[in-house]
């Protein structure tokens, strides 16, 4: 969870997703995401990455044949965060590329994305000082792969949080599932082919 408690990410990666996986016992450790990301980005697509925990509380990362890094582990000051248990009223499925384009179209005029569902369509919109934008996807069309609504819902969410996760993960996910209810967090599920899944939760904007 981010420090402001606005966004939460839950990643599930089975051992079958790795070329080699070995773990003798359950282990919990923390790393600084910004530093870890810098190291992982040094890997080329053709290079393998090996990660292991040493006895001296260091994270060892080997990239390819000749790059080796050591990172000091940190103790997280945050206790285990329980995942939200929510029964959602609206569920939609669409391609990650389509959602990425929608977010870009809305960002032209607004910092926030509003989503509204009925049994027949989903409406994405945004409004700002420069104007407003509305994108409507109808049921039973190629653009909207699935829509299920038990109760019409409306929610507004920050593009500052949505854009980075969709751009970072969407390209590997193909289709994604969005679930939400009025005044409740948005949940986006990314299923990464043959690897695992990622759940991203984002709190709604609260009007003051």
From TrEMBL:
<keyword id="KW-0235">DNA replication</keyword>
<comment type="similarity">
    <text>Belongs to the PCNA family.</text>
</comment>
<dbReference type="GO" id="GO:0030337">
    <property type="term" value="F:DNA polymerase processivity factor activity"/>
</dbReference>
<feature type="domain" description="Proliferating cell nuclear antigen PCNA N-terminal">
    <location>
        <begin position="1"/>
        <end position="67"/>
    </location>
</feature>
<feature type="domain" description="Proliferating cell nuclear antigen PCNA C-terminal">
    <location>
        <begin position="84"/>
        <end position="204"/>
    </location>
</feature>
<keyword id="KW-0238">DNA-binding</keyword>
<dbReference type="Pfam" id="PF02747">
    <property type="entry name" value="PCNA_C"/>
</dbReference>
<protein>
    <recommendedName>
        <fullName>DNA polymerase sliding clamp</fullName>
    </recommendedName>
</protein>
<dbReference type="Pfam" id="PF00705">
    <property type="entry name" value="PCNA_N"/>
</dbReference>
<dbReference type="InterPro" id="IPR022649">
    <property type="entry name" value="Pr_cel_nuc_antig_C"/>
</dbReference>
<dbReference type="InterPro" id="IPR046938">
    <property type="entry name" value="DNA_clamp_sf"/>
</dbReference>
<dbReference type="InterPro" id="IPR000730">
    <property type="entry name" value="Pr_cel_nuc_antig"/>
</dbReference>
<dbReference type="GO" id="GO:0003677">
    <property type="term" value="F:DNA binding"/>
</dbReference>
<dbReference type="GO" id="GO:0006272">
    <property type="term" value="P:leading strand elongation"/>
</dbReference>
<comment type="function">
    <text>Sliding clamp subunit. Responsible for tethering the catalytic subunit of DNA polymerase to DNA during high-speed replication.</text>
</comment>
<dbReference type="InterPro" id="IPR022648">
    <property type="entry name" value="Pr_cel_nuc_antig_N"/>
</dbReference>
<dbReference type="GO" id="GO:0006275">
    <property type="term" value="P:regulation of DNA replication"/>
</dbReference>
